[in-house]
Write a structure and sequence with these properties.
Immunoglobulin-like, 52 strands, about 0% helix
Length: about 575
């Protein structure tokens, strides 16, 4: 498809801070890479959640709920860093497709892009689509009394066990959601094949309800997310949303319930998702609440894994909300260590903003969506930004642009940050194949994990695979290319792996020798999910454990501060 470009240069803005040490930012460049709606079959009006994922080919992939080639049923699209867009798949309700792909997409280790449709005959579905456009629908929602959930608005994400985990906005147990007869939603798990589906948690309004945002995988192997409604502070039902943690097995914990402070100064109704910072804390936004005396139009917050919340910024504290209002999307932590996000409204002309906030809370507007000719450069962004491995931030707007009905734009925002590499899965064991995304890989001469050389295979200029070798420890990944050394945007975490054991069966009390890799610092050993009360870490490659009372036939798992490893075969518990 043809592309259309409109570019505008945005220079550094000197922000007047209360602190005497205010500094200026480096120059930034905002550019419209594509105008949605100028070409037949275009995706239209990209809206929340609209997650953007980088693919193995260096292009970015997402979806829209409208547009496409079949009666505006929605589409999955890809776009290059330079703005060349093509439709990957158009949904067609006439042939049985579910519709309203608000979700955007996430990339799985299978190379497929995963997302959801909110509407259709079954209350939505999960889909996966290849980069070449082969779509597989997975109709798992609904069920008797809609207990499996309906109307998912975010894509699923992949867990350390290889399964995908996600949420639905509606459905579940309506008796636990008295204010919403459609149910408060569920958290689900689905296998990569799509053949195994299970609801692992049903929201009950007291502990959160109606999640809109995608889950994120934490470094501890658990999932973290937000709900837009629900939540109880003390014994008072606030209905302002919560931050939660859920294990892959479905153990659910509310970390924080919003509107715990007077006048909801801590924020309320988070619609965007979370991001885990390099400091281990989680960062996010709420649509409403905050300390503004003009309008309570949202906050940026930090929350620890233990649930201690700190408000980093309240929006709409300036006249006419010049500092932005109502952030819909979540945040991205870029390679400069700062967090970046957008607001749907506010700014110079109330068309939204791009903002930067440090982990300590220094807040700066770095771009206002505005122009003198009527929003030709885009307006009203709803989607979380992505930092491509070329170093540049990308996003889209719901409206604006040069098409006849101003149906949104896809834009870039260059902060001058250097290229880097990222991992599809930032965890694994010695001997596992790790997928690495980037650019300029042809002619690569070395790949290392925290300084330990790895074997590698360059698949394309944007994609390579590497295998960490014995002795590898957790840390940054580097790729040596003809253009220089590229460093990963986050640390690789080495999990216990290659787990075998002897004997392979025995009663409670049996002493079992477990062998594998990266056992140092092990904190937990389980037999069929039951914790061993007695074990010793003999070396980095051996653990001796005693089969505990209550042990069940199943996999042996070893957990270290870096993650959990699972045996390929079962230990059989005998009588």
């Amino acid at each position: 498809m043809k592309t259309s470009h409109v570019k505008v240069q945005v220079f550094a803005v000197l922000v007047v801070m209360l602190a005497a040490s205010a500094t200026a930012l480096h120059a930034q460049t905002y550019a419209v890479q594509y105008n949605f709606g100028n070409v037949t079959c275009d995706p239209l009006n990209p809206a929340f959640s609209g997650i953007i994922a980088q693919g193995r080919d260096g292009n970015m992939y997402s979806s829209t709920a409208t547009g496409g080639c079949f009666g505006s049923n929605g589409a999955v699209f890809k776009i290059s860093p330079k703005g060349k867009l093509s439709v990957v798949y158009s949904f067609n309700h006439a042939i049985g497709d579910q519709i309203l792909a608000f979700s955007g997409a996430t990339l799985g280790t299978d190379g497929n892009f995963w997302g959801t449709n909110e509407g259709g005959d079954f209350g939505g579905n999960v889909w996966k689509v290849t980069a070449a456009g082969k779509e597989t629908p997975i109709n798992v929602f609904g069920g008797t009394k809609e207990v499996n959930g309906i109307e998912p608005t975010a894509p699923p994400v992949q867990g350390m066990d290889g399964n995908f985990y996600g949420t639905t906005n509606q459905g579940g147990n309506v008796t636990k959601c008295t204010y919403n007869f459609g149910g408060c939603g569920v958290i689900y798990r689905i296998s990569p094949s799509g053949k195994t589906f299970k609801v692992i948690y049903t929201f009950d309004q007291t502990n959160g309800a109606n999640p809109d945002s995608p889950l994120i995988l934490g470094t501890d192997g658990n999932f973290y997310g937000t709900t837009y409604y629900g939540g109880t502070v003390g014994k008072v039902f606030r209905n302002a949303g919560v931050i939660f943690r859920v294990t892959p097995a479905g153990k659910y914990t509310v970390l924080y319930a919003f509107c715990a402070l007077a006048n909801c100064h801590d924020g309320s109704n988070p619609i965007g998702g979370l991001v885990q910072g390099t400091d281990g804390n989680f960062y996010g936004t709420t649509e409403y609440g905050g300390t503004s005396t003009i309008l309570p139009e949202g906050v940026v917050f930090k929350v620890t894994p233990a649930g201690k919340l700190t408000v980093l910024n309240s929006f709409c504290t300036l006249a006419s909300c010049k500092d932005g209002s109502n952030p819909f999307g979540g945040l991205v932590q870029a390679t400069d260590g700062n967090l970046y996000g957008t607001t749907f409204g506010g700014g110079a002309t109330n068309q939204g903003t791009i903002f930067q906030v440090t982990p300590k809370g220094k807040f700066t507007i770095v771009h206002n969506f505005q122009d003198a000719t009527g929003s030709l450069f885009g307006e009203f962004p709803e989607v979380t930004l992505i930092q491509n491995t070329n170093g540049i931030l990308y996003g889209d707007t719901m409206n604006g642009g040069t098409s006849g009905r101003r149906q949104g734009v896809f834009y870039s925002f260059d902060m001058g940050l250097k290229p880097f590499v990222s991992m599809v899965a930032w965890y694994g064991a010695v001997g596992n194949t790790i997928e690495i995304l980037g650019q300029g890989f042809k002619g690569t001469t070395a790949v290392s994990f925290n300084g330990t050389p790895a074997t590698f295979n360059v698949v394309s200029d944007n994609y390579l695979t590497a295998v960490p070798q014995p002795g590898t420890t957790s840390g940054l990944v580097t790729v040596t290319t003809p253009g220089g050394v590229l460093t990963s945007n986050r640390a690789f975490r080495v999990h216990p792996g290659n787990i075998t054991f002897t004997p392979t069966s025995g009663p409670v009390g049996t002493q079992v020798t477990i062998t594998g890799t990266n056992f140092t610092g092990a904190t937990r050993v389980t037999f069929g999910g039951v914790k061993a009360t007695t074990f010793s870490v003999d070396s980095d490659t051996q653990i001796t454990a005693t089969v505990p009372v209550g042990a069940k036939t199943g996999k042996i798992q070893v957990t270290t501060p870096q993650g959990t490893g699972t045996s390929a075969t079962d230990f059989t518990v005998t009588q």
